[in-house]
Design brief:
This is dTDP-glucose 4,6-dehydratase. Its EC number is 4.2.1.46. Keywords: Lyase, NAD. Pfam families: GDP_Man_Dehyd. Belongs to the NAD(P)-dependent epimerase/dehydratase family. dTDP-glucose dehydratase subfamily. The protein is of the alpha/beta class and 360 residues long. The protein has one domain: 3-Layer(aba) Sandwich (Rossmann fold), CATH 3.40.50. The strands form 3 sheets. A 7-stranded parallel beta sheet has the order 3-2-1-4-5-6-10, sandwiched between helices. It has a 3-stranded mixed beta sheet with strand order 7-9-11. It has a two-stranded parallel ribbon with strand order 8-12. Helix 5 links the parallel strand 5 and strand 6. Helix 4 runs parallel beside helix 5. The relative contact order is 0.14. Bound molecules: nicotinamide-adenine-dinucleotide and 2'deoxy-thymidine-5'-diphospho-alpha-D-glucose. The site of 2'deoxy-thymidine-5'-diphospho-alpha-D-glucose (DAU) has 19 residues, from helix 6 and strand 8.
Length: 360
């Protein structure tokens, strides 16, 4: 049975990926989820799978070399899928240090632990071992309207401390291929949205605020463009790259779905109005009057747009979920998981680990 070591699996994309993998492979794989449970890690995201025999959660920090090496020593890991990171640009502007520590040094710890476990005495690697580093389109910098797209060959030009730390970690992973032929891939994905996304990010923040009649903060002129991808499509792409990608290669992943932030906010407000029944008191609160233009993010990248041509041509992946469908699925999920949002905004979700794992 193939064993996956997933880092950051209690976060937004990592937890969706774990759900996707169990839906796809069932009992044919084993997943070990390593997460430090920072503010962004939430074990409630995984509560429906935590009793599975082929799932294990380990609370550990990827910067902790001993803890990570112990996991490799005790388990025959076949696949590493490395999500764990500090992921929010605004936080990186206020506190860059933790981004370098987790995203750069933490990635180095992961690389070294995998290399130590997988390397043979002759310097080659055990067969069928693979490390996938989950990265972002932000490493390519910023485009203007009318510019072309980000390709895998686009020069790396990060602007925020977050994207600089992700670019640095990408470079380290690439260096391990160039130097050691360490069996790796890098994926650079555009903005994700979907269930379990922490409400510091644009889409869940707007949904949550609108339903409570709170202001909807729009940075700058609201015309910055992001390329939105439904999170399940990202999970599928990661699996396809890991199984069918060429080792040593980087693959872009994107939604073919560029939208200005203000367009996104208007779509969410219109969709909420359509989906809420007339008798729901929240319907009266949802209004375009809540839109509030605020001071722009420092160094705010203007436009991201991914060309996912290579992954389509080489591997056959393409984005399947249209934005109009994905946003309804996301809003429906938030309607059905009001408690999840309440626990996240109150901080109660951080007690879940103590309660669920105290006897394990
Ligand atoms: P997230 O912030 O929701 O989750 C990050 C997870 O990593 C959390 O569970 C957190 O507890 C864990 N973590 C943080 N520091 C850790 C440490 N030192 N040790 C162990 N675990 C730690 O992030 P996300 O949005 O799910 O993003 C996951 C990955 O995907 C990141 O690498 C991010 O750069 C990348 N990415 C995100 C997007 C997006 O739109 N969200 C798009 C492209 C790429
Ligand atoms: O492109 C991929 C990246 O997408 C990932 O690597 C990051 O981890 C992820 O956080 C995301 O970064 P962004 O900065 O693009 O996402 P965020 O949701 O923070 O913001 C999306 C856009 O909306 C951006 O132009 C800033 C704007 N914004 C954001 C917030 C939180 C607002 O106008 N108002 C807000 O309140």
């Amino acid at each position: 049975m193939r064993t996956y070591l997933v880092t950051g699996g209690a976060g937004f994309i990592g937890s969706n990926y774990i759900h996707y993998m169990f839906r796809k492979y069932g009992d044919a794989i084993r997943i070990i989820n390593v997460d430090a449970l920072t503010y962004a890690g939430n074990l409630e995201n995984l509560k429906d799978i935590e009793e599975r025999d082929n799932y294990t959660f380990v609370k550990a920090d990827i910067r902790d070399r001993e803890a990570i090496e112990k996991i490799f020593a005790e388990n025959d890991i076949d696949r590493v899928v490395h999500f764990a990171a500090e992921s929010h640009v605004d936080r990186s502007i206020v506190n860059p240090e933790i981004f370098v520590e987790t995203n750069v040094l933490g990635t180095l710890v992961m690389l070294n632990a995998a290399k130590k476990a997988w390397e043979l005495p002759d310097g080659t690697f055990k067969a069928d071992k693979k490390f996938l580093h989950v990265s972002t389109d932000e490493v390519y910098g910023s485009l203007e309207e009318g510019d072309t797209y980000f390709y895998e060959t686009t020069p790396i030009d990060p602007h925020s401390p977050y994207s600089a730390s992700k670019a640095s970690s990408d470079m380290l992973v690439k260096a391990y291929w160039d130097t050691y032929r360490f069996p790796m891939n890098i994926t650079n994905c555009s903005n994700n949205y979907g269930p379990f996304q922490f409400p510091e990010k644009l889409i869940p923040l707007i949904i949550n605020n609108a339903l409570q009649g709170k202001k909807l903060p729009v940075y700058g002129d609201g015309k910055n463009v992001r390329d939105w991808l439904y999170v399940d499509d990202h999970a599928k792409a990661i699996d396809m790259v890991q199984e069918n990608g060429r080792l040593g290669e980087r693959y872009n992943i994107g939604g073919h779905n560029e939208k200005q932030n203000i367009e996104i906010i208007n779509i969410i407000l219109e969709t909420l109005q359509e989906m809420l029944p007339d008798e729901d008191p929240r319907k009266k609160l949802v209004s375009k009057d809540l839109i509030t233009y605020v001071t722009d993010r420092k160094g705010h990248d203007r436009r991201y747009a991914i060309a996912p041509d290579k992954i389509k041509e080489e591997i056959g992946w393409y984005p399947e979920t249209m934005f109009k469908d994905g946003i309804r699925l996301t809003i429906q999920w938030f309607f059905e998981h009001e408690d999840w949002m309440k626990n996240v905004t109150s901080g109660d979700y951080q007690k879940y680990y103590e309660e669920m794992y105290k006897n394990k």
